């Protein structure tokens, strides 16, 4: 009996020892399974607080709003308020980031036309404050003008320029158009509806409603898109009046450059203007969204460009030579400012290689141009692939410098006057830019300063100081 008990106790002790030695051995270190990284289990406090609100709270806020626009809250408007403050807050935040780019322009234009300030919120519904956005039916710009309506208000459209994307022109046109619609219907809500679907559709809805003349009275007779258009405008108007109540704030606002308009009165490319003025091309594009292909064509040469304020003084002081150089080849880079005069044979070779681009002026004909540049009409026609003698104002002609002996024409002359200054006699076809090319280290700006020139106009036989 004792032997059996001893054996049983020994078995239990040995079995227990084996189990505990494996589970609690001091030599075996316990390691927790790596199911999650440390970063994953750290608490995350980055969340956005979206305040709750009720229909009654919104109604009370609407009643206290100071606005000239009619605004009667209903379920349709309330649903859009919920959408823009809860479900699509990102869109509203995008609008807040852009609004300071354009709202000052909208406000001043609306004030000038004696219109309600809150109409500025219509551009949010139209374009999301993107001046280059295009709709599926071809409307363009901040105020989404169709080509025909844009032309009615003086906005031109071509391959290189679309005035509908110009903030100033399109805002002025939108104010005039909306004001005319208000005079037509005597109600701002109906004017907004007509801006969206056209006055013809609004008149049709009025007739079908039995002659009623309020938006919500003709609501069911309007096109489906317009039924949501005005409520969205009113929802956005409410939201931007009550940003704090919905915890909406500008996180990364964008502000408009201080600019001034400058007119160059000629076709140009942004690349060439940037080369001459050290302006950033992307800045030029942002400030002039109506220029589509980085260039102003001959047909739009009178349009003014928005230039950053910091560059305005420099451009105005040097406008003549900048304008003169915009149509020429890139300016040569020189190793030093020292003036090096070439001998006559070298100058003659330069003239022979040089190509002049001449812009046809009013009153010009091929015979007159050929005589002024000492070439023949046949040469002009050959160089420019002309089949007749007809030319038009603004047309550009390629003219190669004449080649001949010194006995038949005047070679460009360099002389020294009584004051020890080097002078140059202007030849037919010369321009300040061409003359600057003939002398290393000489620039158009230096020529103007040395000769007290206020413009780039020179004439054959004129004597210029060159150093």
Q: Care to describe what's here?
A:
This protein is mostly helical and 467 residues long. It has 20 helices and 9 strands. The strands form 4 sheets. Strands 7-8-9 form a 3-stranded antiparallel beta sheet, with no helix packed on it. Strands 1-4 form a two-stranded antiparallel sheet. Helix 8 packs across helix 9 (188-197). The radius of gyration is 38 Å and the shape is elongated.
Secondary structure topology:
Layout: H1 2-23, H2 38-41, H3 55-64, H4 75-87, H5 89-112, H6 122-127, H7 147-152, H8 167-185, H9 188-197, H10 199-208, H11 224-241, E1 259-263, E2 268-269, H12 270-277, H13 281-287, E3 295-296, E4 304-308, H14 309-317, H15 319-325, H16 344-353, E5 355-359, H17 366-372, H18 377-383, E6 396-400, E7 414-416, E8 422-425, H19 432-438, H20 444-450, E9 463-465
Antiparallel strand pairs: 1-4, 2-3, 5-6, 7-8, 8-9
Short précis:
With 467 residues, the chain is mostly helical. Helices cover 45% and strands 7% of the residues. The strands form 4 sheets. A 3-stranded antiparallel beta sheet has the order 7-8-9, with no helix packed on it. Strands 1-4 form a two-stranded antiparallel sheet. Strands 2-3 form a two-stranded antiparallel sheet.
